[in-house]
Amino acid sequence: MLQAIAKPFGVLMLWLYNLVGNYGVAVILFALVVKLIMLPFQLKSKKSMMRMSRMTPKLKELEKKYGNDQQRYQQEMAKLYKEEGVNPMGGCLWTLIPFPILIALYNAIRYPLTTMMGIPAAELAEGGAIFQKLAALGYQTATGRSQFYDQIFQSKFITEHFDAFAGLSDKLQELSYRFLGLDLSQTPSFAFWRWDFSQTSAWLPALGLFMIPVLSALLSWLSMKAANAGTPQTEQQQGSMKTMNLIMPLMSLYICFTMPAVMGIYWIAQSVFAMAQDVILNKVYNKQLDIEDADRIEREKAREAELEAKRQETERLKAEGATVENRNTSKKNKRAVAAQKEVERKAAEVRAAKLAKKGLTEEDIPASQVGDRRYARGRAYVPDRYTNPDEAEAKTAAAAAESEGYEPPEETEAEAPVEETAAIAVTAGEPVPEAETNTETETETDTVTPEAESEPAEDEDSTEDKA
């Protein structure tokens, strides 16, 4: 099955080799073709990863808030991703695709005769025409680890004696592995102490092959740095990226020291193209995401301003008594509001009666006082000192004198005591409502302007009322 998957890659490699006539250049062009094919998917993946990186400040806030509760942190993080429309796995899937391509390319390189040229395996097996010709010409089958690349050595031998094999199959063709003076079919060796330094023609090619894995690992590290440049990350993301930045170059170094040098050339080309792609996409997508963020911020500000305007309008209408009851409000809430108003009304009556006994009214209480707290707003408090500055000085002096000479009655609470208020409510046959936490949305729902009044809806107590 793996051979069937590798077959298209082998055909493409052979076509590129026939196009340029150089094996190393063909591998570089192969890497470019793969990059172009994957580009549409990688564009989406890159933008998703950059959009997710923009969420890092919010993720840091969640990490700071729920760092000790990992389950809650994961829940809040998933909720944030959903609100922002970001798929955290969207940028990971496409980063794994190059590995199957690398494996397929490895098989195409490992089996140049069957995968690239399409020669039947039977002709290379014992008893086949090509096998017999190789044996007749003195070809020695590779042993040990080298037997994994026996077809590469057969291909080189056939190229050196091509006239003898030309009539055996019309699919056979010459294939040179030379590139920049190096034999890409050879495997680089890190055992430099075994090199023959007596001859330049011996150690110089060995040094060139040695530098391919080193350069591959270095460019792999630089490629990952370029991919993450300018993207803020949480501590968790930074830890995982440090691990990846270490593992990927080491894996590249290992692979290139254990496989033919042509695999290192492919890895180098992939890293160079990836760096160029990331540099360009970072510039393009940063501009796009800046525009998107600015638009989102403007929409949020407009929404907040709209809600604030509605709240202020509702408060104004409440003060003017111009609001109407929202018929969509549940009867339970309606009863609670009515009971609270009745409690406040009776408390106001009690307060007015106490003031009347002293021969006072609400207008007699200085503006500086709140409830029974004298000078709560300041002894010289003037409500319109900023809106009417011309008269502020005179009013301030008058307010100070009024506050100085005012003696409050013994009990002048703005509201009746809790026990008395409860007694009034019970006497009136009304329940004392429990305190409820009302949000801005609930306020808008319970009290609406005449223009916003909607059709009545069946509430939660409808079944109870019908019964």
SSE arrangement:
Elements lengths: L1 H19 L2 H31 L2 H11 L3 H15 L8 H4 L1 H13 L1 H5 L4 H4 L4 H8 L13 H11 L1 H4 L12 E2 L2 E2 L16 H28 L7 H24 L2 H60 L3 E2 L5 H27 L34 H14 L12 H10 L12 H7 E2 L13 H5 L1
Question: Can you characterise this structure?
Answer:
There is one protein chain. With 467 residues, this protein is an all-alpha fold. The chain has two domains: 2-117 and 173-290, no CATH class; 329-466, no CATH class. It has 19 helices and four strands. It has helices at 2-20, 23-53, 56-66, 70-84, 93-96, 98-110, 112-116, 121-124, 129-136, 150-160, 162-165, 200-227, 235-258, 261-320, 331-357, 392-405, 418-427, 440-446, 462-466, and strands at 178-179, 182-183, 324-325, 447-448. Strands 1-2 form a two-stranded antiparallel sheet. Strands 3-4 form a two-stranded antiparallel sheet. Strand 1 (178-179) and strand 2 form a beta hairpin. The protein is rod-shaped, with a radius of gyration of 42 Å. The two termini are 72 Å apart. The model is unreliable at 412-467 (pLDDT under 50).
Which key phrases capture this entry?
rod-shaped; mainly alpha; 4 strands; two-stranded antiparallel sheet; 467 residues; disordered C terminus; two-stranded antiparallel ribbon
Uncertain spans: 412-467
The total domain count is: 2
Strand numbers in spatial order across the main sheet: 1-2
Report the mean per-residue pLDDT as an integer. Answer: 76
- Tell me the distance between the termini: 72 Å
Cα gyration radius (Å): 42 Å
Main sheet: strands, sense, barrel: 2 strands, antiparallel
Work out the strand percent.
under 5%
The coarse silhouette is: rod-shaped
The beta-strand count equals 4
What is the H/E order? HHHHHHHHHHHEEHHHEHHHHEH
Oligomeric state, counting identical vs distinct chains: single chain
> How many helical elements?
19
Q: Could you say which structural class the secondary elements and strand pairing correspond to?
A: mainly alpha
Helix content: 55-70%
